[in-house]
Amino acid sequence: MEHTMEKASLNKGFRKLKKSISEKYQEAWKTGQTGFPLVDASMRCLNETGYLNFRMRALLVSFFTHILWQPWQDASKHLSQMFLDFEPGIHFPQLQMNSGETGLDTLRIYNPIKNSKEHDEDVAFIKKWVPELANLPTAFIHEPYLMTSLDEQFNNFHLGKNYPKTIVDINLTRKKATEILWKMKDNPDVIAENRRILKKHTITSSNKMV
């Protein structure tokens, strides 16, 4: 019924959204070298085990499409190859939902630092999958880029050598994504597509399945 959704946004209004492709950003994301510990831990876990829980899957997609501002189509191939439970009927709708390009779902731009502190408070998950951070104080495991040169000397750790520096300024990129995507939700083409999608895929009293 929506045969183009493997390669194009279900909501045609979002097809006008153009993003510059960065091979550097994409490679850092695929290999767990972004400088954001929870993102890197999640990707390394996925690459090794083939599995992640729903929240971490959503985080990886959100980070790729919003924080790195990369097209969701470029995330699809890597994720589909890694997921042991890959199923196209689930994969593509979830991918587009977490990319904020359905027009129907609430826009969720996950904050990896907030999620790290709330859902990996004791940093057990990060320590397991990003062992180069394991000997740092907990606060720096969540945010290693906050270390001063004195902190680095004290901990015998060098950002950019032992672990990557952050590849983007998350405050700026998150703000940019939020502003653009919320504005697009009010675009007439997006709104018209919302109506088309709901009419086509929602069961109503005059369109019952039997």
Your description of this structure?
The protein is 54% helix and 0% strand. The two termini are 18 Å apart. The chain has a domain of 133 residues: DNA Cyclobutane Dipyrimidine Photolyase, subunit A, domain 3. The protein is mostly helical. The C terminus is likely disordered. The longest helix has 16 residues.
Main attributes?
single chain; about 210 residues; mainly alpha; DNA Cyclobutane Dipyrimidine Photolyase, subunit A, domain 3; 11 helices; disordered C terminus
Furnish the topology, listing elements before pairings:
Blueprint: H1 23-31, H2 37-49, H3 54-67, H4 72-82, H5 88-98, H6 112-119, H7 124-129, H8 138-142, H9 149-154, H10 170-185, H11 188-201
Order of helices and strands: HHHHHHHHHHH
Within CATH, the superfamily of one domain carries the name DNA Cyclobutane Dipyrimidine Photolyase, subunit A, domain 3
Known CATH architecture of one domain: Orthogonal Bundle
* Class derived from helix and strand content: mainly alpha
Helix content: 40-55%
**What is the residue-averaged pLDDT?**
90
Q: What proportion of the residues form beta strands (DSSP E)?
A: under 5%
Largest sheet: none
Would you tell me which CATH topology of one domain applies?
DNA Cyclobutane Dipyrimidine Photolyase, subunit A, domain 3
Overall outline: elongated
Give the C-alpha Rg.
19 Å
Strand tally is: 0
User: Helix count, per DSSP?
Assistant: 11
For this structure, what is the CATH class of one domain? Mainly Alpha
- Which regions have little confidence, pLDDT < 50, spanning 5+ residues? 205-210
How far is the N terminus from the C terminus? 18 Å
